[in-house]
Every structure is written in C-alpha cells, then in structure tokens.
Amino acid sequence: MKILHITPHLGGGVGSVLRSYLEFQSRTSQNSHKVLLLEHINSDSHNLFDDIGVPFYENVYSSKELISQEVSCHDVVLIHWWNHPLLQELLMNYCFPKNRMVFWCHIAGSQAPNVICDFVLDYPDEFVFTTPLSNFVPSVAANQLRNRGMRDFIWSTVGFESIENRNLISKNRRFDNTNKNLTYCGNLDETKVHADFFNIFSEIETNKFHLNIVGPPTSFFDNLSYGTSGLKYTYHGFVSEQIKFEILSRTRIFVYPLARHHYGTCDQSIQEALIFGIPVVVLNNAMESYMVKHAKTGYVAKSISEMVHYVEVLLKDESQCKILSSQAQEDARMRFSIEKMSCQWDAKFHALYSLPKNDKVPLSVNYGRSLSPAEVLSESLGIHGAVFQDYLRNHKKIEGLELEAQIASLGSNPSWKSPTKSTISHYAAFFDDEVINAWKRMIS
C-alpha cells in the first residue's frame, strides 16, 4: 500500500517515533511511505529519509495543489495530529480530494488549550489515540456516547529495537555503591516539570548521588535552579540521541517528577528509561501511573515525600534495583516494540483499504465561508472555547469588557503560557490576525 503521512513538523517525540517507524518499515515491509510537512524538516529526519529512500516535501502548507495531488494518489492518509495552528486551519478550511484518512492523536487532550474538539474526532475515517487514557477525557467521553464508543490506541514508541541496534544498552550496569547517578530527561518548562523539582532532590537524605539533567533550557528552569549550590548535578542541556543514551546507560534511577497539569501521553523518556532497564520513580499522575508498574518496573508515588522515600530505597538497596531493572526491560520489550506498533498500523491500513475513498467535510461548510484564524483557534478549543466564541460575537459591545477579563485570567495558568502547545501565542506565531493579537495582549 501507498501511505501518505501529513505532519506539522518532526521535532520532539513525534519525530523520533516516525523516524524509527519508517526506518523499521524500510527493512521489513513492502508498503511505500511519503511524508508531507507543513513546516520545515529538521536535519535528523532529512538525513534518515535520504538514507532509507522515503520521499518528503517540506513547507507544503501553502501548496494546496501539491497536497491534493499526493492525497489523491495514495491509498491511505495518516495525519499525525495535535492541535497545531497550521494543521487545524488546513482541516477546517480546505476541501481534500476523496481519501481514506486516519488520525494518530499525539496528545492526551486533557489540558486546555491542547485539547481535542468534536470536529477533529468526527472528521477522519478513524481516530487513533497514543494512550487509552484519552478515552476518559470528559469531552472525548461525551463524544463517544454520541457516536462510536471508545477508540483504539497504538503506543507511540521509538522501540527497544532501535536502541539495541546502536549497542547502547548497558549489559553490565552497576547498581552497587559505585553507581549513584540519578537522571531526569525531558522538557523543563512549567507545563511539564514539577515546580518542586529541586526541592525533591534536596530532601534526599544521602548527598552522595549525582543528578544528570537533560533538556532544552527555559527561563522557568533557570528560576528553579537558583539556590541549589549544595546539590551535585550536571545540566547537560539539549543533547544528541547518542549522548542522551550514553547518559542513560550510566544511570541507576530515573527520577521523573512532572507537574500535575502536564500534557504528556506516552512519554518517550519513560519508555527509554525502561528500555535501558532503569527503575523509574514518578508521581501518580494518570500517564505515569499507566506507564510505570508500581514495585515492578519502578515506583509510583502519591506525594513528594513518598517520591523521596522511593529514591532513597533504590539508592540503598542494590538487590531491589537489579530486580526492578530486569522487570523494566522485560516490560519494555512487551509494550514498547516497533515491531508491535508496525503490525498494529499494518492492520489499520488494511482495514481502511477495504473502505471506499470518501469526502471529508471541512468546518467552513457550516460557516458558509472560510474561518478566520481566530475562529479556527476558538473552534479548536471545543468546550474550552466558549469565551473566545462569545468574544468574537460581542467584543464590540460593552459586554466584551467582561469577556476580556475572562480571557486575561487564563494568563495565570501555565498551560496557556507556552509559546507552543496550541496556545494563543502559538497561533499568533503563524497568523497575523487582529483578534488573536488582541487575545495575546490580554493574556500577557
């Protein structure tokens, strides 16, 4: 079959997953793949696609004729979906030619503004999650009651195979007193990392451990790190996959304190730690509780103090570290396999191929005209977009002052402050829209 992938870009976890998947497919499958990127392609993806012979086009957002041509000549279209401004505008305003289309949702959808609206859920022939937890998001559950019931999920993974192929899994990791390395690897902004990050490590009784921190710099993290001179840690910043895996191969415990409001789905960092056989200590947020099996592959803590306790246990107990390490690797092989993910997608593609190609109706049909960027943003927020929709109707009236105050109040929520993650600032980066710019000023 001929599979067309459409994605906003290939940075972060989505890029890692798609690169691993396409590399695996190039060795094991007769399917052909092509990738369309609405933005530019990064060097890692460019180099790999050249090596394995996967054709791609970048910056296609404004090339509707090319998009139509490629959609028409492929058997199945796989949209790597999250609430990205360019992708949402394309789906809501553009009439695709007849196609068979499936969305792979790369967000949990539980935290506004990074949510899943009814239009997106109902648009493709099939909508697939990367985590079953999305089925229990209230807005998603309400949609399922009205329509098709619970939707399938396919883990989004880089797989243990790709890491094994690099010979970077340590076969002789030391869990004795010579290895006191703790590692955190992931985003370091306030939408992801816990505000008590450094306090957690400061409360650990023994000060003989060394903490490795891997992640791109943020002003939020800089502020957290003030006054931590007594803590032994190395901030590596953003590093290559090779260096990251080398750090993991020397790690005793993966400590991953995430904010209660974080947006994660099937976190690549947790997967990679388990693949390396590193016991993982997390808080009992929904995603982490699903991914880490308590007392088998790591520990799921109900509180900060409990998290500290579990880290201390693993620092002192070599035998428990070894047991959890072995069980973590075994569990990762069962759940986070590229081969398993590839087989699941092959089954989806074959099922879709049995369907006739059909029209997909953009939201602009209901409007009778193209949606403005501000309307795209408000519609993309689903039930969370009511205040923005009211503003669009009333902002020239006196009642608009109250709506402005409601929008401005969102600025106190970390999830709305990010320059990306479907926020107003994210939309403003792509669209010079008078109303979006006004909303951005209000939140700022």
Topology:
Elements: E1 2-7, H1 12-28, E2 32-37, H2 43-52, E3 56-57, H3 64-72, E4 76-81, H4 85-93, E5 101-105, H5 118-122, E6 126-129, H6 138-146, H7 159-165, E7 181-185, H8 197-202, E8 210-214, H9 219-224, E9 233-237, H10 241-249, E10 253-256, H11 268-275, E11 280-283, H12 286-291, E12 298-301, H13 304-316, H14 318-335, H15 338-353, H16 364-367, H17 373-380, H18 386-394, H19 400-409, H20 424-430, H21 434-443
Parallel strand pairs: 1-2, 1-4, 2-3, 4-5, 5-6, 7-8, 7-10, 8-9, 10-11, 11-12
Observed structural traits:
single chain; 444 residues; alpha/beta; Rossmann fold; 6-stranded parallel beta sheet; 21 helices; 44% helix; globular
In short:
By secondary structure, the chain is α/β, with parallel strands linked by helices. It contains 21 helices and 12 strands.
Which second-level CATH architecture of the largest domain applies?
A: 3-Layer(aba) Sandwich
Note the total helix count: 21
CATH class of the largest domain: Alpha Beta
The figure for the number of domains is 3
- Main sheet overview: 6 strands, parallel
Shape designation:
globular
Averaged pLDDT: 92
Strand order of the largest sheet: 3-2-1-4-5-6
Content-based structural category: alpha/beta
Q: How large a portion of the residues is in β-strands, by DSSP E?
A: 5-15%
> What Rg, in angstroms, do the CA atoms define?
23 Å
Number of strands: 12
CATH superfamily of the largest domain: Glycogen Phosphorylase B
| Termini Cα gap | 48 Å
Instruction: Show unreliable segments.
Output: none
**CATH fold descriptor of the largest domain:** Rossmann fold
- Helical residues, percent: 40-55%
